[in-house]
Hints:
Layout: E1 7-12, H1 19-31, E2 33-39, H2 41-45, H3 55-63, E3 68-74, H4 80-86, E4 90-92, H5 103-113, E5 119-121, H6 131-137
Parallel strand pairs: 1-2, 1-4, 2-3, 4-5
Amino acid sequence: MGDKVKKVYIGMSADVLHHGHINLLKIGKKLGEITVGLLTDKAILSYKKKSFLSYKQRETVIKSIKYVNKIVPQKTLDYRDNLKKIKPDFVVHGDDWKTGAQKKTREQVLDIIKNWGGKLIEPRYTKKVSSRKIKKFYSLV
Length: 141
Protein backbone atom coordinates (compact mmCIF):
# COMPACT_ATOMS: atom_id res chain seq x y z
CA MET A 1 0.00 0.00 0.00
CA GLY A 2 1.17 3.53 -0.77
CA ASP A 3 1.60 6.31 1.73
CA LYS A 4 -1.53 8.01 2.98
CA VAL A 5 -2.14 11.37 1.30
CA LYS A 6 -1.35 14.18 3.72
CA LYS A 7 -4.00 16.74 4.61
CA VAL A 8 -3.21 20.45 4.27
CA TYR A 9 -5.32 23.29 5.67
CA ILE A 10 -5.05 26.86 4.41
CA GLY A 11 -7.29 29.53 5.86
CA MET A 12 -7.89 32.59 3.72
CA SER A 13 -10.33 35.37 3.01
CA ALA A 14 -9.36 35.52 -0.69
CA ASP A 15 -11.22 38.76 -1.19
CA VAL A 16 -8.81 40.02 -3.82
CA LEU A 17 -6.78 37.07 -5.02
CA HIS A 18 -3.13 37.74 -5.87
CA HIS A 19 0.09 35.85 -6.56
CA GLY A 20 0.86 35.58 -2.83
CA HIS A 21 -2.25 33.44 -2.37
CA ILE A 22 -1.27 31.27 -5.33
CA ASN A 23 2.25 30.85 -3.88
CA LEU A 24 0.74 29.54 -0.63
CA LEU A 25 -1.50 27.12 -2.51
CA LYS A 26 1.43 25.84 -4.60
CA ILE A 27 3.46 25.22 -1.45
CA GLY A 28 0.50 23.49 0.18
CA LYS A 29 -0.12 21.28 -2.85
CA LYS A 30 3.45 19.93 -2.64
CA LEU A 31 2.59 18.74 0.88
CA GLY A 32 -0.74 17.05 0.15
CA GLU A 33 -4.43 17.64 -0.55
CA ILE A 34 -5.58 21.15 0.24
CA THR A 35 -8.65 22.13 2.16
CA VAL A 36 -9.19 25.88 2.11
CA GLY A 37 -10.93 27.27 5.16
CA LEU A 38 -12.63 30.18 3.46
CA LEU A 39 -13.45 32.89 5.96
CA THR A 40 -17.09 33.87 6.00
CA ASP A 41 -18.07 37.50 5.58
CA LYS A 42 -18.69 37.71 9.35
CA ALA A 43 -15.25 36.25 10.13
CA ILE A 44 -13.57 38.83 7.87
CA LEU A 45 -15.47 41.67 9.54
CA SER A 46 -14.09 40.55 12.91
CA TYR A 47 -10.60 41.80 11.99
CA LYS A 48 -10.81 44.01 8.92
CA LYS A 49 -13.19 45.90 6.66
CA LYS A 50 -16.07 44.31 4.78
CA SER A 51 -14.93 42.09 1.93
CA PHE A 52 -15.31 43.35 -1.61
CA LEU A 53 -16.64 39.99 -2.81
CA SER A 54 -19.30 37.93 -1.02
CA TYR A 55 -18.53 34.50 0.40
CA LYS A 56 -20.25 32.78 -2.56
CA GLN A 57 -18.26 34.86 -5.07
CA ARG A 58 -14.98 34.12 -3.27
CA GLU A 59 -15.89 30.42 -3.08
CA THR A 60 -16.48 30.37 -6.86
CA VAL A 61 -13.03 31.87 -7.45
CA ILE A 62 -11.24 29.48 -5.07
CA LYS A 63 -13.05 26.41 -6.50
CA SER A 64 -11.60 27.23 -9.90
CA ILE A 65 -8.00 26.99 -8.68
CA LYS A 66 -6.41 23.69 -9.61
CA TYR A 67 -4.46 23.34 -6.35
CA VAL A 68 -7.60 23.30 -4.17
CA ASN A 69 -9.25 19.98 -3.34
CA LYS A 70 -11.97 21.15 -0.96
CA ILE A 71 -13.43 24.33 0.58
CA VAL A 72 -15.03 24.58 4.00
CA PRO A 73 -16.45 27.72 5.59
CA GLN A 74 -14.37 29.15 8.40
CA LYS A 75 -16.92 30.97 10.52
CA THR A 76 -14.50 32.83 12.79
CA LEU A 77 -10.92 34.01 12.67
CA ASP A 78 -10.23 31.13 15.06
CA TYR A 79 -9.17 28.05 13.05
CA ARG A 80 -9.64 25.55 15.89
CA ASP A 81 -13.14 24.23 15.08
CA ASN A 82 -12.15 23.36 11.51
CA LEU A 83 -8.78 22.00 12.56
CA LYS A 84 -10.35 19.66 15.15
CA LYS A 85 -12.66 18.24 12.46
CA ILE A 86 -10.04 17.92 9.71
CA LYS A 87 -6.90 17.16 11.76
CA PRO A 88 -4.56 18.30 8.99
CA ASP A 89 -0.97 17.15 8.83
CA PHE A 90 0.00 20.69 7.81
CA VAL A 91 -1.39 24.18 8.22
CA VAL A 92 0.08 26.67 5.75
CA HIS A 93 0.00 30.43 6.34
CA GLY A 94 2.28 33.29 5.39
CA ASP A 95 4.64 34.39 8.16
CA ASP A 96 2.91 37.79 8.34
CA TRP A 97 0.62 36.57 11.15
CA LYS A 98 3.40 36.41 13.73
CA THR A 99 2.37 39.93 14.76
CA GLY A 100 -0.80 42.00 14.54
CA ALA A 101 -4.46 40.98 14.48
CA GLN A 102 -3.77 37.33 13.69
CA LYS A 103 -1.01 36.67 16.25
CA LYS A 104 -3.46 35.09 18.73
CA THR A 105 -4.92 32.92 15.95
CA ARG A 106 -1.43 31.65 15.10
CA GLU A 107 -0.79 30.72 18.74
CA GLN A 108 -4.13 28.85 18.87
CA VAL A 109 -3.23 26.94 15.70
CA LEU A 110 0.14 25.90 17.12
CA ASP A 111 -1.50 24.79 20.36
CA ILE A 112 -4.20 22.64 18.71
CA ILE A 113 -2.21 20.94 15.95
CA LYS A 114 0.37 19.59 18.38
CA ASN A 115 -2.40 17.27 19.66
CA TRP A 116 -2.08 15.10 16.54
CA GLY A 117 1.46 15.96 15.46
CA GLY A 118 0.47 18.57 12.86
CA LYS A 119 3.01 21.08 11.59
CA LEU A 120 2.72 24.76 10.80
CA ILE A 121 4.41 25.78 7.55
CA GLU A 122 5.03 29.53 7.29
CA PRO A 123 6.44 30.63 3.96
CA ARG A 124 7.81 34.15 3.79
CA TYR A 125 5.02 36.66 3.17
CA THR A 126 4.98 37.83 -0.44
CA LYS A 127 6.44 41.33 -0.28
CA LYS A 128 4.76 44.39 -1.71
CA VAL A 129 1.40 42.72 -2.30
CA SER A 130 -1.70 42.45 -0.16
CA SER A 131 -5.41 42.58 -0.76
CA ARG A 132 -5.55 45.78 1.27
CA LYS A 133 -2.90 47.49 -0.88
CA ILE A 134 -4.62 46.39 -4.09
CA LYS A 135 -7.98 47.69 -2.86
CA LYS A 136 -6.40 50.97 -1.80
CA PHE A 137 -4.66 51.40 -5.15
CA TYR A 138 -7.95 50.91 -6.97
CA SER A 139 -9.85 53.03 -4.40
CA LEU A 140 -11.97 50.07 -3.35
CA VAL A 141 -11.59 50.95 0.35
